[in-house]
Amino acid sequence: MIDRNLTIGWLYPELMGTYGDRGNIITLRRRCKWRNIDFRTKVLDIGFEPKEMLECDLLFMGGAQDRQQKIVAEDLKDKVGTFSQIIRDEIPGLYICGAYQFLGKYYKEADGTVIPGLGIIDIYTENPNTDRMIGDIAIIPRIDTLSDFIFVGFENHGGRTTLGKNVKPFGNVLSGFGNNGNDKTEGAIYKNSICTYLHGPVLPKNPELADYLIKTALEKKYKKTVNLEHLDDTLEKTARTVIAQRLGVKV
Amino acid sequence: MNSLLIILGKILSFFSKKTNLGGGSTWPGHIALIINNNFIQNIFEKSQTEIILIAGTNGKTTTSKMIRTILERNNRTVFQNKSGANLLNGIASSLIIKANFYGKVKKDFAIFEVDENTLPLILKIIKPGYIVLLNLFRDQLDRYGEIDYIVQNWNTALKTLDAKTTLILNADDPAIAFLNKDTKAKVKYFGLNDVRVSTRKPQYSADSVFCPNCHSKLNFRMIFFSHLGDWKCSNCNLKRPRLDIGSSKTYPLSGIYNRYNTNAAFLTCKTIGIDNKNINEGLAHFKPAFGRQELINFNGKKIQICLAKNPTSFNETLRTINHLHGKNLLIIINDHIPDGTDVSWIWDINIEKQIKDEHNVTISGTRAYDMGLRIKYGKFSPNLSVEPDLSKAILNALEKISPDETLYILPTYSAMLEVRKILTGREIL
Is the pLDDT of residue A14 over 90? Predict the structure, then answer.
């Protein structure tokens, strides 16, 4: 396939990007470039027009501090309809931590304040004001084509997320906390949107997930099966193995 | 009571130093504080010592050492807490070592570097003469929490001060400058004014680009690095305060960040009452603190160690090395508790701009492969090798350089201690 291109919509890079999350954009960009896929980044910052989202083949949003999250919530008010539509139309996306919580029904702060979410996915998050869940984490992804791999990342969240009955988790926790520290689930998958607490950032050490997003976006865009060119991921896999071994997880 | 604790503490630190048990720098103080909650204030109530506190993400150790050098050159006696021992127990330990058996310290000044979370705690106990607040960048979010949270706590703590304290604030850091908001302490400002070393665009990962008052996006007339510069809010009109100092005659260390440290030290000493000429004379005698652009000769080769512990210090260190045409880097990323266990921050380093094809990069540390990936996914393809074993990595890196070149080592905090031990302790290799 020649002349392939992808446009990624990067939601609020400055406001929602506390934990090195831009590493995910860097990873997608390089992996596309190495395969001669033209990769364009469209920044969707405060005041963007809802229709700008429609030009995107892939969406990304990272985590943030509480104050930033309030500013973003305000800005997204008039875009909820378009945003929901895009997600229901199976435009792939990666939503990390704060962004993940955002897509749910609500986030209840430690002091009881309830911040309504976009309500796109049937999940809710509550912060019981106990210890934050911090540390390395390893999961088995619940995506059929990826279930042979183990993904690793670093989680750091105060909120505990509960999934609705029909929501599929992104993965099963092998070591670490995941959504709530209890039910061994991590993140959520809805249509082609992947929601996760994995920072690290998640994509550099889990290149299969990066490629899954690229492939899904290309297939959606060009409406045909896409086989991505193989890349040498020795360094990526070594980095992952080091963390998995530390956690006592066999790769 | 305190006399007993001091005697006990002195014995403890003596033995822990001898036996090398945990360096012995904090636990005598820890024990003293458990037995007497008021250990620190009791000592200062008895002593005539003026206290200077230094806080902020980057530059504490260098700024403290500059102030100390200037004060000592001007015949003031000074003592400090040990670098890195910047919690209450570290401060208490330094008092145990310096206090006499009557629980009294006979020094003119105490300079304490304090950790972000310790500043509010120490202000509950003592009222310092001077508080130098340098900057706030993203650093170890897993440990310190988010910047907004730190600012809130600092604001609450500074409210309790009166005009006996002078705050020396970085006017160029919006969040720091706005700490004058609720306090009755006197306030003085340092910053930078040299347009030649400025840009107009905030760098990615800049933290405080929003107005600390109304949260609108700030405009910058000049940016020196990250979010430090001449800022103004077009919504509420809050702007950078007028500077009491914007440049110094002598900058003893390279790097823009060290200009801030120098100006902070200059303003502090000037406020204390030392005249410009004597401050400059003091600065001329300044020698870098360990691991902060420290030069080491090893097997006939030149090595410079530049602590790089968060995106901002990393970016600025790389920028400085590039100015000096340095080509050979050894980057050591650890994820022990003093470094922060979350190394996501390495993705906020501006590798794309700072590391080019002509660089030789060796990477080591407990997170060597993560850093390897960061470089691999950069824009250029430097000569890259990843070696988690530090001793081997040092040898590999040194092999690549010729006698007239310098190897620049960029370690995180615990890596800096390890690398110094190897290079100066001659233990391994």
Answer: no
Whether B89 is in a domain gets the answer no
| Contact check, Cβ <8 Å, B347/A23 | yes
Mutate to test the interface with A, among B213, B335, B369 (most CBs of A within 10 A): B369
Amino acid at B235: N
CATH number for the domain including B61? 3.40.1190.10
Q: How many helices (H) and strands (E) does chain A have?
A: 8, 14
Is A97 an active-site residue? yes
Q: How far is B332 from chain A (nearest CA, A)?
A: 15
CB contact residues (below 8 A), chain A span 217-236, against chain B: 235-236
Is residue B242 located within the same domain as residue B324?
no
Is the confidence at residue A31, as pLDDT, over 60? yes
Q: Looking at beta carbons, which residues of chain B come within 8 Å of A13?
A: 204
Question: Are B275 and B341 members of one domain?
Answer: no
Q: How many Å is the maximal CA-CA distance in chain B?
A: 63
Question: For residue B373, what is the domain's CATH number?
Answer: 3.90.190.20
Give me the pLDDT at residue B426, please. Answer: 45
Pick from A18, A67, A135: CB nearest B341: A135
- Residue B153's CB is within 10 A of a number of other CB atoms, namely 16
Counting the structural domains of chain B, the total is: 2
Under DSSP, is residue B180 helix (H, G, I), strand (E, B) or coil?
Answer: helix
pLDDT (0 to 100) of residue B140: 59
Residue B90: inside a domain = no
Cβ-proximal residues to A24 (8 Å cutoff; 6+ apart), any chain: A60, A62, A94, A96, A201, A202, A203, A204, A210
Residue A59, Cβ density class (10 Å: 0-12 exposed, 13-18 middle, ≥19 buried): buried
The confidence score (pLDDT) of residue B208 equals 61
Share above pLDDT 70 across residues of chain A, in percent, rounded to a whole number: 98
Domains within chain A, CATH numbers bracketed: 5-246 (3.40.50.880)
Q: What is the DSSP letter of B108?
A: S
Chain A stretch 163-202, residues whose beta carbon is closer than 8 A to a beta carbon of chain B: 199-201
The residue ranking higher by pLDDT, A18 or B59, is: B59
B313 and B339, same domain (yes or no): yes
Percentage above 70 pLDDT, chain B: 93
User: C-alpha dihedral over B306, B311, B316, B319, to 10 degrees?
Assistant: 100
**Domain hosting residue B296, numbered range:** 292-425
Supply the DSSP symbol for A14.
T
Mutate to test the interface with B, among A28, A67, A157 (most CBs of B within 10 A): A67
ipTM: 0.95
A18·B141 Cβ contact <8 A: yes
pLDDT above 90: percentage of residues in chain B: 60
- Range from A92-106, B8-22, B60-74, B110-124 carrying the lowest mean pLDDT: B8-22
> Do B310 and B173 share a structural domain?
no
Quickly list H helices, B74-211.
Answer: 88-98, 118-125, 141-144, 147-158, 174-177
Peptide linkage before A201 cis (omega within 30 of 0): yes
Q: For A132, which residue in chain B has the nearest alpha carbon?
A: B142
DSSP result, B135-165: ------HHHH--HHHHHHHHHHHHTT--TTS
Q: What proportion of chain A, given as a percentage, has pLDDT over 90?
A: 79
Residue B14 lies in a domain: no
Which of B193, B191, B197 shows the shortest CA–CA distance to B176?
B191
Give the Å distances, CA to CA, from B272 to A193, B167, B299: 59, 12, 44
Q: Closest by alpha carbon to B375, among B365, B391, B387, B386? A: B386
Active site residue A230: no
